[in-house]
Amino acid sequence: MTEKTKKAGDSKTIVFLHPDLGIGGAERLVVDAAVGLQNRGHKVVIFTSHCDPKHCFDEARDGTLDVRVRGNTIVPPNLLSRFSILCSILRQLHLILQIYLSAELQSLSPDAFFVDQLSAGVPLLQLLSPRRDARVLFYCHFPDLLLAQGRQRWWKRAYRVPFDAWEQWSMSFADAIAVNSKFTKGVVGRTWPGLARRKDLQVVYPCVDTKGKEQNEKNGGEEDGGDDKPLWNGKKFLLSINRFERKKDIALAIRAFAGLEPSARKGVRLVVAGGYDPRVAENVGYHKELVELSESLGLRCMTAKTHVTALQVPDDVEVLFLHSVPNLLKATLLASARLLVYTPANEHFGIVPLEAMLAGVPVLAADTGGPTETVVEGVTGWLRSPSDVVAWTAVMDKVLNHLSEDELAALSKAGTARVKDNFGEAHMAQRLDDIVAQMLRAPRTWSWRPMAAALGVGTLGAVGFALAVLGRAVAVYS
């Protein structure tokens, strides 16, 4: 009897609401959560304001998931590259109103809702839900008010005040709140202590695809679609995978690599791969900074923008930059790397260390944030202070020149086992299923009576503020 059959009697209809179903960590979690709950026998529908078939995960375009684009016909994603948060909120409210007025929501009659990233529409969703016993789970990847840029400017701080207040207020209407790590749970608790006292914040870790690994092992350990020729003729290399953003601190990996003695670095390469969009100024600017840093440290570097050029790199290149590597090349890199160097400090969770450990690659990560919950010191990798470059260099040297093959094999085996035992798809799906069941059994933790006036005033204020901002934008840019 399959897991799906076992759960058939408990089948529920779960509706997901996500702002933009593109390609990113939050989107990967949403897709995995939806597929996992669907595999457990539930009916799952995802509503989103944007999903480009050319820029989304396979499950969102190949029919695996029922993805419906709504709420995208009135409000644009931004106004002249500004007012993104305002537009996002209005688009979410438009989406909810559209599926309600079209009777699409009534026909689905959801038992539960999964809302993430943007909580603004949760009160409206509670108001318009066709079932009084339906419940809402809000998944907080990280408080949006802490992610907003440019707060050093007074007008930016003033602009954000109503949105920051709305974020906390609207989250209080969720029947349950989940976060992606204990680190994020602590941040949410410190940011909104009142909310944390009223709500039991549940940790639901993101997952990685362990089924593909298991199938690969059954097939004899050969990577699907790969060949037997080792990368760069078997050259040792350290790997960094991150978006080209300054907060990812990729420069730390380059400085630590440059700190190796020439003899320890001989025949070794640092490969810096990650998300890169030429339309994003920070991606372009930070890549240029990293190239200049490498050259200033006496490291010969090269940038490869295609799979073909990446495989034809001269042997004396010490730092190789790879832009937006495809999944096949990424899997090949992980299968061959000596060490994953994961540099972001205070990362909310960090999915790349899990991908590396699943592939049997030990991880060197910052001793802050999510990696402290996934990487086990001395067992699956090492945790070091991002301010101590020398300590990072020492670990690199240890892995490259001092660990025996047996010691490396033990690290590899422990990493794979840790991911399979704790961070697989089934673990996340079951955790979410348990939270949904718990929500449906428990009484509501909020009431409309004391909040009805706030809802009315807040809605009128938000609409007035939106009209004022739109009017100002038209006046300034016309």
UniProtKB/TrEMBL annotation:
Catalytic activity field: an alpha-D-Man-(1->3)-beta-D-Man-(1->4)-beta-D-GlcNAc-(1->4)-alpha-D-GlcNAc-diphospho-di-trans,poly-cis-dolichol + GDP-alpha-D-mannose = an alpha-D-Man-(1->3)-[alpha-D-Man-(1->6)]-beta-D-Man-(1->4)-beta-D-GlcNAc-(1->4)-alpha-D-GlcNAc-diphospho-di-trans,poly-cis-dolichol + GDP + H(+); a beta-D-Man-(1->4)-beta-D-GlcNAc-(1->4)-alpha-D-GlcNAc-diphospho-di-trans,poly-cis-dolichol + GDP-alpha-D-mannose = an alpha-D-Man-(1->3)-beta-D-Man-(1->4)-beta-D-GlcNAc-(1->4)-alpha-D-GlcNAc-diphospho-di-trans,poly-cis-dolichol + GDP + H(+)
Coiled-coil intervals, chain numbering: none
Transmembrane intervals: 451-475
Domain Glycosyl transferase family: 233-403
GO molecular function terms listed in the Swiss-Prot or TrEMBL record: GDP-Man:Man(1)GlcNAc(2)-PP-Dol alpha-1,3-mannosyltransferase activity; GDP-Man:Man(2)GlcNAc(2)-PP-Dol alpha-1,6-mannosyltransferase activity
Domain Glycosyltransferase subfamily 4-like N-terminal: 23-210
GO cellular component: endoplasmic reticulum membrane
Keyword Membrane: yes
First-listed, main subcellular location of the protein, grouped into a coarse class: endoplasmic reticulum
UniProt pathway: Protein modification; protein glycosylation
InterPro entries, sorted: ALG2, Glyco_trans_1, Glyco_trans_4-like_N
Pfam family, one: Glycos_transf_1
EC number: 2.4.1.132, 2.4.1.257
Record's keyword terms, sorted: Endoplasmic reticulum, Glycosyltransferase, Membrane, Transferase, Transmembrane, Transmembrane helix
Subcellular location: Endoplasmic reticulum membrane
Role description: Mannosylates Man(2)GlcNAc(2)-dolichol diphosphate and Man(1)GlcNAc(2)-dolichol diphosphate to form Man(3)GlcNAc(2)-dolichol diphosphate.
Family listed: Belongs to the glycosyltransferase group 1 family.
Alphabetical list of PANTHER family matching this protein: ALPHA-1,3/1,6-MANNOSYLTRANSFERASE ALG2, ALPHA-1,3_1,6-MANNOSYLTRANSFERASE ALG2
Protein name: Alpha-1,3/1,6-mannosyltransferase ALG2
Species, as recorded: Daldinia eschscholtzii
Name of the gene encoding the protein in the UniProt record: ALG2
